Amino acid sequence: MGAEKKRPRGLAAQKAAKKAKVDEEPNTNNAQTVVIDKEVEEGDEIGEAAALLESAIEKAEKDPAGALQLLRGTVHESDRILRNWPENETRPPPKFYLTYGSALYELGRLTEDEEFEPFLEAAEERLQDGLDRFEELTEKDEQSVDTADKTRIAMAKVWIAKASGAVNDANDDIPELATRALDTLDKALNGSVKLTTTSMVELASIVQNHGDLYGSLESQNKFRDWAEKLLQRVLKDEPDNTRALSELGLGKLSLANYWLEQADEQGEDDEDEEKEEQEKKELSKEEQNAFEAITEAKKYFEQALTKAGDNATPQTFADLAEACLNEANLVLSEDEQNKLYQVAVKHIKDAKSTAEKNSLQYNLPDGLQSFLEEWEEQ
């Protein structure tokens, strides 16, 4: 897969191509089978499609299978609306194309067994149709301007996904599409666009995940720092936003993983066998940097879990467990290491029990599952 890849999460170290994996995909060709829980004016088909998309995005985090059904419904309805649109009437409004293009993009991210690129191409085409339609408007009111800005943001997300396929480990250059996407996002977000905090956090996550694809710290930080600023902006308005806190934790965990990789490379280059055999008494510079980033990551994850309470997600427990394991591998005291292992095991079990209690489709990262099995065999 060339397009947008999933964040490498330390132990699992996976660079998968999709946002989430859905094991069983509902076959939904009729959007009328989907219940819309939003208020929509009767007969407003474009509004109904937008409501389907909104519901899908709300479900994506905890119920990807349910979100997939809604996204298929959105695309089906949008396609039907376009095909049935009277030829002698002006094209559908920009809002329609924003819904259609966004649904194609999100569907591509969630669909398991299909290539992402065709979805991206189709999404970009529909979003561009929306921007072209906006330019045709003789009167551009506040609502249409807001829709145009949201369309540009959606287009930037598509560009980031397409740029992911152009990231080259050999030279680590940032593709022009990714740079253009960040410039577009800056312009839109510094304007009057009205985005929900959910949309802002998701946007930060997309940018941060893209940064993880690069090998150099400079390239990573360009995207990580951008995402952190947006997440802090969210927390300024909503201090209890658990998703923003978790994403900030993931950013620090990603930074820690970078320094851990650097420490491993330094260790491989060290040819002083006698030094290696000596009991380690202090951390290297790279290990210390990793330790500090892990400490910050844990702080954010713990805050997210505290504020979430009974609504905590399995993934946050898993992320905290990973941070604890990474910390355990750095501490110099064996007793402290064992204590951190025990805490990690508790968080792993909390992740599994939370998923079971809430009937959520969730699989532990392979590295955490393997660690738990090895621990329980001792």
From TrEMBL:
Region of interest: Disordered: 1-31, 264-287
Membrane-spanning intervals of the chain: none
GO CC annotations, alphabetized: nucleus
Compositional bias (Acidic residues): 264-276
Primary localisation category: nucleus
Ribosomal protein found in the keyword field: no
UniProt xrefs under InterPro entries: Nro1/ETT1 (IPR024318), TPR-like_helical_dom_sf (IPR011990)
Highest rank taxon of the organism: Eukaryota
Sections of the chain in a coiled coil: none
One example of a Gene Ontology biological process annotation: positive regulation of SREBP signaling pathway
Keywords carried by this UniProt record: Nucleus, Transcription, Transcription regulation
Positions with biased composition (Basic and acidic residues): 277-287
Record bears the keyword Transcription: yes
Compartments, as annotated in UniProt: Nucleus
Family designation: Belongs to the ETT1 family.
Entry protein name: Nuclear pore complex subunit Nro1-domain-containing protein
Source lineage: Eukaryota, Fungi, Fungi incertae sedis, Mucoromycota, Mucoromycotina
